[in-house]
Amino acid sequence: MPEAQNPYANPVSTAVPLSPAEEKQWAVLTHVLGIFFGVISAAAFYFIYRDRGPFVKHHTATEWNFQLTLAVIHGVSFLLAFPLIIGATLPGTSSDTFFVAWAIYMVVYLLNFVLRIVALVLGIRAAVAANRGSFYTYPSFRFVKVA
Question: Which residue ranges run through the membrane (predicted)?
Fold first, then answer.
């Protein structure tokens, strides 16, 4: 009896390649939905479309890198600012300490707000570049290799 061949021994992508127009369409949608849904939509688009064409792979990877970078920055700022507020509200804390903690929290909050505005502008620029058929790379950390 011949030995059964392992289907996982030589993985081959079974994804059907997209046409250039479809690649452009999904690349634009990746950036637009990234503005509203962040890292969730970026990850979904990356895992669904990364093997469907080089143009859409580049745009989904760069969007996911950017959204992961934003998530890390927001997470770090929360971890730095939140304990200040908790510590400032404990009984026996002086009013000066309370004021300084709230001031630092408000600065972090405003910086996060500005970061979201910058993300909106860059997301629109990336969507316009994808619609023109050009490659666009966000200023971000590289968590995923961009083709």
Answer: 26-49, 70-90, 102-124
